[in-house]
Write a structure and sequence with these properties.
Length: 148
C-alpha cells in the first residue's frame, strides 16, 4: 500500500487545484466479452487552433459501475482527436457509476467545433475487479480487524 497525493481540479478545468493524500494499492481487472461504444458529442461551440489542446464540454456519458473506458483512437472529427476525458473533483472509484462530460481535444487544424458534432467514440468495457493483497496490505488488514 502506498500513500499518494491526488491532484485534481476543484471547480473547473484550469481553475483551482485540490490536493489530497490517500492510501492506495494496485489491483488488476479482467475485461469481459461485452462492451459498448458511446458517441462523444460536443455540447458547446468552441474555436480551436492547431496544436493548442482545449477542453470541450460533451453530452454526458454514463459509465456504468465496474467498467473501464478507453477512447477509440480512430479520428472522428476533421479538426482533431479526443486525447482524454477530463473531469473535476476527486476521481471516482471504478466500483461506482461515473459520468463523462468534458474532453481534452487536440486540434490538428484551425476551425470551429459546433454543438452536436461527433468528436469521437469511447469504448466502454465491463470488467471484474481483482484486488491483490500487495506487500503490507494483508498485515494492515489483520491489524485493523484484530487489533493485536
Amino acid at each position: 500500500m502506498a500513500r499518494i497525493e491526488i491532484v485534481c481540479w476543484k471547480d473547473k478545468i484550469g481553475g483551482e487545484l485540490k490536493k489530497e493524500t490517500v492510501e492506495a494499492f494496485s489491483y488488476g481487472f479482467t475485461v469481459g466479452p461485452h462492451g459498448e461504444w458511446e458517441m462523444v458529442i460536443a455540447n458547446e461551440d468552441k474555436e480551436v487552433k492547431k496544436d493548442e489542446i482545449v477542453n470541450i464540454k460533451i453530452e454526458e456519458i454514463e459509465v456504468p459501475p465496474k467498467s473501464i473506458v478507453l477512447p477509440c483512437p480512430v479520428m472522428r472529427h476533421a479538426l482533431g482527436v479526443v486525447l482524454s476525458f477530463a473531469g473535476v473533483g476527486k476521481p471516482k472509484k471504478v466500483e461506482g457509476a461515473r459520468f463523462l462530460n468534458e474532453v481534452l481535444f487536440h486540434p490538428i487544424f484551425n476551425g470551429t467545433i459546433n454543438k452536436g458534432q461527433l468528436l469521437g467514440v469511447v469504448n466502454v468495457f465491463y470488467a471484474s475487479i481483482e484486488r491483490r493483497l500487495v506487500r503490507g496490505a494483508a498485515e494492515r488488514w489483520l491489524q485493523e480487524r484484530y487489533r493485536y
